[in-house]
Amino acid sequence: MNKLTFRVGAIALLFVSFFASFAIAQQSPESISGKRLKRVVVRGAMVVDGSGKPAAGPFDIVVENDIITQIVGIDPVAAAEGRARRPEKGELEIDAAGKYVLPGLINLHGHTHDGRAGKSFPVEYVTKLWLACGITTVRDAWANPKILEYRDQIAAGKLVGPRIYAYGGFPAPNLNTADQVRQRVLDLKNAGYDGIKLYTIDRDLMNVMMAAAKTHGMRVMHHVGVEETNAWDNIRLGTTSIEHWYGIPDAAILSGRQNFPTYYNYNDEVHRFRYAGRLWREADRERLMKVLDGMIEAGVAWNPTLVIYEASRDLQRAQTNPVFAEYLHPVLEEFFRPNPANHGSYFIGWSTTDETFWKENYRIWMDALKEFGTRGGVVGTGEDAGFIYQVYGFGLIRELELHQEAGFHPLTVVKHATSNGARILGRDHMLGRIRVGYKADMIVVNGNPLENFKVLSPLGVEEIRNGKAVKTGGIEWTIRDGVPFHAPTLAREVRELVAAARK
């Protein structure tokens, strides 16, 4: 090959490469959604980086493969004069001028359902909703072998969804001895679970289980329940996080146990949730502060899932959620109806008195959560959707609003849902921040979430502009592991799925 032929060939190759890149950049968002690209550039964004510091911008953010490689500040004067040095074009150019970019949201208490009460729906109903609502990471609470398959399919690009950390359920039936407990932990480790979701357990067996979990390097999320154990055991043994709030007020009751009526039956969910709404008022505040300080000192995080019990304080609001109009799958709708056979469908004879107690419960609960965070505790966010009128993805957005209601600044709320979540997962070296060298997990939002978390919702929001109501908001792009997903396209696909199921 002579030099002239080589040069002509090289020039031709450059032109082909340039026009191929240009062609990709000009493709519709729907055609690019979900495709692995070598280089994505987000232009001119206001950035909330997840650390808790204020928003700043504008910035250009460069993603190469699955890593954030550049974050370049833009001098507005230089940009106006055409002198600004900007990163080279990417295969996908996202215009984020006037938009906000946040780290991908982390849902620490999710359930990758593919049906409810024995009736199925496509798992994409859940996973696409999560992405459409900005969730890039989910800790699946009580995962099973099928969830392991979904996790691996998402990682391989065969299923559209957020990355999943699968926490296997514990205990299993017939775990009565220390050897059986150790074997269960080993079985979960060998099966490839990322951690353990702990539920009902006696104190002696919890001692054994936690020792085994630490031996095998498995993190433990604990739904304490009303058991022999409470938050003092979590403090003593060093669980990773307490889920919901069970066990925390219980540990601060001076008599040692909530004042249940004599007819109380824990397995009757109407009893269980009715009197759960009367628990926080029995906690002694001085002792409660000691419990919170003990959790902080021991490094036990708190994932409160405020959203999942909200129906208990306002049933009508929960049952008339505007999300239901287009996004509630009929299988999930049936599961939500009051029915003793379905977990969390306990609203039979629910009264004004019940709601009044629950409103007080929330006031004290939120005060304790704010105190925990103020004193230095690590707070996370989770939705527990698929139960109690909560729809996947939308539940986490509502969780952010409830953290703000509890008294946290919106910047702190974003930190709860991003870098704190990564810390609880043990992945804060790679997730939860808009930072060079971190995984390219981010959301591009049409609006300012710090002003209104509702702009994260696929429902969007209405604003008055020039005297007219206009629809705005919503997430435009959810980028997970560097793969861009067009959120409006995912939301439309879910709406079509729901509409077809209703027919």
Would you summarize the structure shown here?
This protein is an alpha/beta fold and 503 residues long. It is built from 18 helices and 19 strands. The strands form four sheets. Strands 1, 2, 3, 4, 5, 15, 18 and 19 form an eight-stranded mixed beta sheet that branches.
Polypeptide structure, described:
The chain has about 500 residues and is of the alpha/beta class. Helices cover about 40% and strands about 20% of the residues. It has 18 helices and 19 strands. The chain has helices at about 5-25, 30, 75-80, 125-130, 145-155, 180-190, 205-215, 230-235, 270-275, 285-300, 315-320, 325, 330-335, 350-375, 395-405, 410-415, 420-425, 485-500, and strands at about 40-45, 55-65, 65-75, 90-95, 100-105, 105-110, 115, 120, 135-145, 165-170, 195-200, 220, 240-245, 300-305, 440-445, 460-465, 470, 475-480, 485. Strands 1, 2, 3, 4, 5, 15, 18 and 19 form an eight-stranded mixed beta sheet that branches. Strands 6-9-10-11-12-13-14 form a seven-stranded parallel beta sheet, with helices on both faces. The protein has a two-stranded antiparallel ribbon with strand order 7-8.
